[in-house]
């Protein structure tokens, strides 16, 4: 077995599952690993409530029927399980009965970070420690107190790709949606320090450090980094250049549904500037820059500052040749005509914004409303071509890439 994906339904009726369902699922996962699974991914279960018993919310008869099919499938596995898996739920001291084979492990369901699944998760990570090269964790609904146990109990000497993300949650404080921070910075830092082999890192939803210095030799092999702007600034704030880093992805931390309120300066777009100023000196070999900008509030003002100021940090980014620019075009509180007006205004700003990059050659821009016709997109591309003579390719939204050299001829 090379690839196994298991998805928990969003929520499951209390009457749909018998008391031993957790044990059967764990046994199935043990069997999957026994079959030399290379890629293992577990997702879903967002409607489950936390706790040791994973109490279940009520759901429709349709979901009950789905669980009936899952139960029927498990019956076919039962005899095979008996020959390879102990019948009692495995404890932490019985972790070495599987041969490591998993290379990529995506634990994107909080269920795997709660008892009784937590022991299996730690066991699987430890058992496959010599083969795992890519691991992804989702922090949603997992208590902060569990993460020190998880991160301190696994060491993966050949880990190359690590992703730790948290979903956006709705709040009622006027900011709309915010990425909740569930993990202490020191816990993550300890894990990163033990894994110098990491090449590709995506890191979100962690608490900010308090007077914590960056270790001198942290992630020496890192090539691709995606994180909140404050973490990137902290990571780049060092004396020795990071010569392996070639790609950087920054995303603003708050997605506002109330577009009439100012974007909080603590999370505002000015947090990007600190990282952009540090980039030329500390990471001179970064050629690809990915910027995800949410929300619309204060975005135009931030773009205007870079367009009008001679000392914009963009002017020093001579090594950046590729820019992926993602802007929110979701404006639920405004009419469709206002959406189009926002698109037209932003289109003019973005064209001027791009001229501040001295060596930009490739652009992907994702912000157009879905009803923008191809002819209008091509008009935008021609504006970019005229404003940026060195630009070679432009991709708008999900469309195909346009070769500007061919367009010029």
Main features:
single chain; 409 residues; alpha/beta; 13-stranded mixed β-sheet; 3-stranded antiparallel β-sheet; 33% helix; globular
- Strand ordering within the main sheet: 1-2-3-4-5-8-9-10-12-13-14-15-16
- What is the residue-averaged pLDDT? 79
Largest sheet: 13 strands, mixed
* Record field, number of beta strands: 16
What is the H/E string? EHEHEHEHEEEHEEHEEHEHEHEHEEH
Radius of gyration from CA coordinates: 24 Å
What class, by secondary structure content?
A: alpha/beta
Note the beta-strand portion: 15-25%
Q: Helical percent range? A: 25-40%
- The low-confidence runs, each spanning 5 or more residues with pLDDT under 50, are 50-67, 84-98, 168-178, 255-265, 331-335
The rough form would be described as globular
Tell me the span between the first and last alpha carbons.
Answer: 51 Å
Give the count of helical stretches: 11
Describe how the helices and strands are arranged.
Layout lengths: L2 E6 L12 H14 L4 E6 L16 H24 L19 E5 L8 H11 L6 E5 L8 H6 L8 E5 L2 E3 L6 E3 L5 H9 L6 E4 L20 E4 L1 H8 L10 E5 L2 E2 L14 H13 L5 E6 L5 H10 L13 E6 L8 H19 L7 E5 L7 H14 L5 E4 L5 E2 H5 L1
Parallel strand pairs: 1-2, 2-3, 3-4, 4-5, 5-8, 8-9, 9-10, 10-12, 12-13, 13-14, 14-15
Antiparallel strand pairs: 6-7, 7-11, 15-16
Helix pairs in contact: 1-2, 6-7, 8-9, 9-10
């Amino acid at each position: 077995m090379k690839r196994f994906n298991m998805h928990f339904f969003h929520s499951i009726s209390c009457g749909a599952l018998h008391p031993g369902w957790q044990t059967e699922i764990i046994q199935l996962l043990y069997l999957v690993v026994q079959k030399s699974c290379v890629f293992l991914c577990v997702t879903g279960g967002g409607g489950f409530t936390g706790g040791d018993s994973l109490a279940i919310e009520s759901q429709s008869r349709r979901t009950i029927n789905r669980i009936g099919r899952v139960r029927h499938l498990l019956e076919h596995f039962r005899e095979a399980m008996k020959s390879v898996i102990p019948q009692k739920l495995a404890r932490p001291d019985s972790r070495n009965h599987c041969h490591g084979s998993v290379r990529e492990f995506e634990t994107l369901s909080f269920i795997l970070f709660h008892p009784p699944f937590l022991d299996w998760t730690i066991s699987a990570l430890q058992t496959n420690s010599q083969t795992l090269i890519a691991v992804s964790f989702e922090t949603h609904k997992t208590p902060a107190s569990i993460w020190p146990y998880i991160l301190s109990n696994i060491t993966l000497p050949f880990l190359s790709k690590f992703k730790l993300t948290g979903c956006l949650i709705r709040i009622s404080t006027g900011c709309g949606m915010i990425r909740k921070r569930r993990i202490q910075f020191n816990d993550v830092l300890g894990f990163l320090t033990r894994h110098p082999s990491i090449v590709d890192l995506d890191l979100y939803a962690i608490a900010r450090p308090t007077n914590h210095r960056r270790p001198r030799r942290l992630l020496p092999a890192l090539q691709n980094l995606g994180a909140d702007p404050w973490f990137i600034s902290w990571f780049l704030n060092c004396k020795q250049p990071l010569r392996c880093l070639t790609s950087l992805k920054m995303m603003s931390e708050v997605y506002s549904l109330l577009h009439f309120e100012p974007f909080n300066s603590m999370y505002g777009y000015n947090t990007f500037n600190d990282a952009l100023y540090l980039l030329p000196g500390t990471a001179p070999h970064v050629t690809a820059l990915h910027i995800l900008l949410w929300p619309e509030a204060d975005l135009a003002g931030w773009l205007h500052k870079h367009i009008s100021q001679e000392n914009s940090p963009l002017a020093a980014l001579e090594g950046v040749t590729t820019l992926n620019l993602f802007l929110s075009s979701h404006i639920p509180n405004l009419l469709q005509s206002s959406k189009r007006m926002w698109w037209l205004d932003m289109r003019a700003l973005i064209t001027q914004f791009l001229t501040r990059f001295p060596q930009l050659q490739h652009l992907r821009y994702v912000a157009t409303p879905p009803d923008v016709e191809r002819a209008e997109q091509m008009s935008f591309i021609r504006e970019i071509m005229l404003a940026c003579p060195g630009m070679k390719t432009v991709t708008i939204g999900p469309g195909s890439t346009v070769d500007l050299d061919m367009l010029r001829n």
